[in-house]
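ZP: hey, is the adenosine-5'-diphosphate complex queued? I don't see it on the tracker
AM: it wasn't, my bad. submitting now with these inputs:
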Amino acid sequence: AVINFGSINIDHVYQVDHFVQPGETLASTDYQQLLGGKGANQSIALAKAGTNVRHVGKIHESDAQFKQAMIKHGIDCKFVDCTDIPTGHAIIQVTPSGENAIVLFGGANQAIDDKDILRALDDAQPNDWVLTQNETSNIDAVLSQAREKSLKVAFNPAPMTESVKSLPHDCIDLLIVNEVEAAEISGCSDLADIEAYFRKDWAHAEVIITLGKAGVRMLRGEETLEMPAFVVEAVDTTAAGDTFIGFFLSEYTYRGSAEHALRRACAASALAVTRVGAAQSIPDAQDVDAFLQR
Ligand code: ADP
C-alpha cells in the first residue's frame, strides 16, 4: 500500500464579482463546500488509479462526513483521527474570469505528531511506500521514520516553503516537483541548470519535474526520461499535479516501468485539466484506459 501522510482540507469556494477589498463586505453570488487538500487529492487519485492507499491525517470531530467521503473513494482511513482542533480549510474567492484568491488555515493538519507517525508506521508492511506533501506538520519525522523502517519514500514539496530546504533529503527516494518548486529548491531558473543541480545534490533520488503543458522529465541516475503532455483543451488545471502523482505512484510502485507510469500519469492529468474542480476532476482508471486507446 501507499501510506500517505496528507492534508485534509475543507474548501469553501465563494463566487464573487471581484476580490473583497479592505473594509468591504461583499455578498458572494454562489458557494460550494468541497473536500480538498493536496494530501486528500493525492489519496483520491491513488485510489482511483487502483492502488491500496492508507491516509494518515486529522480532522475535527464535527467533520466526520469528510472522512466518510474518503472511505467511499476506497481510501483506508484507519489513521484519519477526529480531534477537537478545527479541520484545515481554505477560503477561496473565485472571480468570473476564473482568478482565485485563497486564505489557508492549517488547523488539524498541523497537529500530526511523532506519536501519530510511529503508530501509522508500526503497521507498515516491508514493500509499502510512504508519501507526503508540505501541508502537514512534522514532515522531517515522517521522512526519517519511514527511512528507519526501510520503506520507500516519495515527497511532493507543495506548497513550497523555505523549510523544505532543511528536510533530510537523503531519506527521499522519489521527489516530484513542478517547475516553480524545482527552481526554488535548486536556486536556478534555467531547466538545464536545475537538472544539473538535482543530478549532483540529489543523486541518491529519482526526481520528476512536471512542466505543465510541456510535459514531464524524470531524472534517474545518468538517464533522463521525457514525456510530452497530451494535447487537450485545458479548462481548469487545479489538481493536475495531484492527479499526476497518484497515477504515477500507482503504476510505478507496484506495476510497471517508469516509462509506462509517466505515460499513464500524463494521460490522467491531461484528463483532469479538461474538467472543472479539484477532487471531482480526477479521472478513474477506466477513463484513463479509454483515453490512452483513443
Ligand atoms: P502542478 O499542478 O503541480 O503545478 P503541472 O502544472 O506541472 O503541476 O502539471 C502536472 C502534469 O499535468 C504535467 O506534467 C502534465 O502532464 C499535466 N498537465 C498540466 N497542464 C496540462 C495541460 N494544459 N495540458 C495537458 N496536460 C497538462
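AM: back. The chain has one domain: 2-18+28-292.
ZP: great, adding it to the tracker
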